[in-house]
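Can't attach files on this board, so I'm pasting raw text. These are the components:
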Amino acid sequence: MTEDVSERVVELAKRRGFFFQSNGAYGGVSGFYTYGPQGATLKDNVEDAWRDRFAVAEGHMEVDAPTVMPEPVFEASGHLDGFDDMLVECPECGENHRADHLVEDDTEIEEAESVPTEEVEDLIAEHDLVCPDCGTELAGQPVEEFNLMFETNIGPGSSQPGYLRPETAQGIFVEFPRLKEYARNQLPFGVTQIGKAYRNEISPRNSIIRVRELTQAELEHFVDPEEDEPPLHRVEDVRVTLYPADEQEKEEGGYVETTVGEAVEEGILTNDWVAYYLGVAEPWYDRVGVDMDRFRFRQHLSGERAHYAADCWDAEAEIDGDWFELAGFAYRSDYDLSKHAEHSDEEFTLFKQYDEPKRVERATVDPDMSYLGPEFGGDAGDVADALERKAERDRAAFDGEDVTVETDGEEYAVPLEKTGFGVEEVTESGEHITPHVVEPSFGVDRTVYTVVAHAYREDEVDGEERSYLDLDPEVAPTTVGVFPLMDKDGMDERARDIAAELREDGHDVTYDDSGAIGRRYRRQDEVGTPFCVTVDYETLEAGTVTVRERDTTEQTRVPVEDLSETLTALRDGDRTFDEVLVAADAE
RNA sequence: GCGCCGGUGGUCUAGUGGUAGGACAUGAGCUUCCCAAGCUCAUAGCCCGGGUUCAAUUCCCGGCCGGCGCACCA
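---
Top answer:
Structure tokens for the assembled complex are below.
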């Protein structure tokens, strides 16, 4: 059981309709998976549980943005730079290097990214560039471009380029101007999105762990960095397993088992917002069935952290001895919104009112366009704008007879009296601020995989081997199997009626009348169905059915009229199976 | 993307230069009836393309897919 769980899970997932590689009829395509009948429901249930905790319980709002977005979005987000990455492999040590960076480091060229790959190859040869690791000459090595975003065309003919989003987050950032209106211009507010993202991975691997089309559940929490604080007290007692950067760098570093509150006090978690969401996430993972003994939060090493991220932790899970990322928690400061503000004409700020309005002196200009126009021709407008900027920043420049401004590399001297320069006292009631962003970002597919792998069990029942999924009823795709003990004497009809009634009450029911009863129990065990109901002769006579519990295989009798209510209570955790057993014994 | 190994019913697998056998699963019937029982029958397979050959699932080449290692994972 300790080895090869992945293999068994992958096999079971194929056979029992959880997930399998897509397009098998055409040979399959690497990195694309289809969720089958069981898997699609399981995934829905995981998403619902996420929505319940990270959107509803936090009072955040959920959106659903397009998966295709136009090029400028990704120019702003910085993802397009990734598209232009160039790699060159060292023939000696095999190490891959960013070719554009090598060229930038050793030449006058600053934007090698925009240089065609053939020219970069030439540049490497001309400048005798060598491998930074082993010093081998790289001349003659091919420079490969790599492309992590799927490109497409929007509209017919000379259409505009678009890309499939590589993360759901941009769909939220881009709509910030409208979303902040919806939030009545008040911070903090959070926006969630669950949806598909696409990455043209070089090498998809490990079933649904690394795929080209994935589902993310992301939260962008917009906060005022100076005033807003997370409700840390709500999670301060949550126990977490932390793997801080300094422990990772030690020879024999270990985990820090502590509470969120203590980790913040001791300075292990330096960002309160990140700490808060770690405290929310750990119980959530436990709730959907991730084994907390194989779960940890790992801090990013300084090298793997994006430059704008103050601190970043990943949630990680272990399967077959390998750890992989389930979610990332990053404090992204104002990076994303500032980027979009630069590239777009929209405002990505909020107006924040001061407690007391301030009286401030402000330098203003009112350029005499009847002078600037004839004097500077087409540049007059730019000169006027430059004057305005200059007045804001450098009031001293307006002390002399002429004011010199620069625009497009040209200098213009404007007589002071033509600038309309003046200083006035105005009342400012507030300022525009760019919110900071706290981003918990979850991989849904990986969560589903982990939930199944961590739920996989093998045991023996009456000397027969059995495998089953110990899924929590909240996420189990089928909640109850209904069987007639035999397919005759009216038991089948009664069982069908009961199945139909349970479905009407919202239970996910599988009806099965094939073969022997034990076989049907095993079938449900394998897809993690927590409860099975069997209709027998006693049902016809006394109106009771047996209810059988998956993990223990114990069973008890329940009156048909109480069945739906009992199953609902069991599913929702309002009653345990033991309590049902005891209640039945009492009668 | 590079290197090594592999690809046979739904699943797991045996085997072969003359187109394949098992187990499990699935369906029908008999029997049994609360934990994968038995019997009978049935359905169902050599990843794709090219080459060598009288003949290729088998040998060779290429592709696709998978596993492992390296790289990548913004």
